[in-house]
């Protein structure tokens, strides 16, 4: 994708207007067509939102992570499919910045920051869940010219449009990470249509058949430390999903406030019914709590504090589970209209469920967060 | 090896895993409590506490097996930064 003009990054108010005018009104269409048009992706580039956390030397803006989170929240308020693209693109961009050799950074980072190249994160496989990331069927074998990559990845967000894949593969030293251009011979991209939620995230299955890679395709350390590459990227993805979940909650509140202000039952506006007020109060409280948790996680990232990892788990757990509950309440408030494509809440409900599955399922999060509780008590 | 670095690293680990006992020379990976999440936390802790960025070539298991090996890594990185 080529951005003709670029400035930025936009301030949050401008991002909000972009969402209000250009994203939210079209999100149901994006969902139905399972596609986000290129011109929308170019607008994201124009606003400087693809990887604004990168430093200026790589055409980023050194945006702090708290603000990055607010950007992902705003985009998530409009369309979780688009936010999902931002999530995986951020994971790839941050990984190349953190782990890439200078030549790799020169090759990729400016194009990623400008949105001229889009990145996708390839971990999950058809036969191995993302939660079981040590069991990988994709292999990279070293030869005298570089690497030969074989295997399949599934549920790859943005896979239909990405220019570069960040691929985890088993090597002799354990797991390693590779940057693979989508137009390499031997790479086959198959769209995955008709999924339940975030249908506009352009999911794909990616098959690698004897894909030849130069030695410079290897990203970061191999073996044990490659797990650190994966964990670092997933932590950022988790943060983005948490912030996007706050956006879903905000969208549900906006939809319900508008709907209940004009819809009556028994001669009474829905907004004046106590049980509606109760649900709206829960939505507002959950939104504010989720955002505070996200801001805490983001501030710890900005400080380079390892406590950000657990803080991000907690933020994502609260934000995603709240988003599912609140989107469900939003459908309930809308009654039969909640199931209609004429309203956004059905989409919000479908999209919210995805946030409980990706970048650490709710159940995996419970294992991790509960373990922290026992550690705290043992001290 | 810096005693101060050893102390800080040990404190970080025992704060996270108060039930585990180990010497500064002991292989903490052999004790089974280090998962990928904690490995990431260890890397972030060392980088933040000692103001260094661990290069890819130093990110291997051999440098993280024990408190003393991590302290040696810190000493190398901080002296390289000064030098």
UniProtKB/TrEMBL annotation, chain A:
Pfam families: Acyl-CoA_dh_1, Acyl-CoA_dh_M, Acyl-CoA_dh_N. GO terms for molecular function: acyl-CoA dehydrogenase activity; flavin adenine dinucleotide binding. Residues 120-211 form the Acyl-CoA oxidase/dehydrogenase middle domain. Its cofactor is FAD. Residues 228-372 form the Acyl-CoA dehydrogenase/oxidase C-terminal domain. It comes from the Bacteria. Keywords: FAD, Flavoprotein, Oxidoreductase. Residues 14-116 form the Acyl-CoA dehydrogenase/oxidase N-terminal domain. Belongs to the acyl-CoA dehydrogenase family. PANTHER family: ACYL-COA DEHYDROGENASE, ISOVALERYL-COA DEHYDROGENASE, MITOCHONDRIAL-RELATED. This is Acyl-CoA dehydrogenase.
UniProtKB/TrEMBL annotation, chain B:
This is Phosphopantetheine attachment site. Residues 1-78 form the Carrier domain. The lineage of its organism: Bacteria, Bacillati, Actinomycetota, Actinomycetes, Pseudonocardiales.
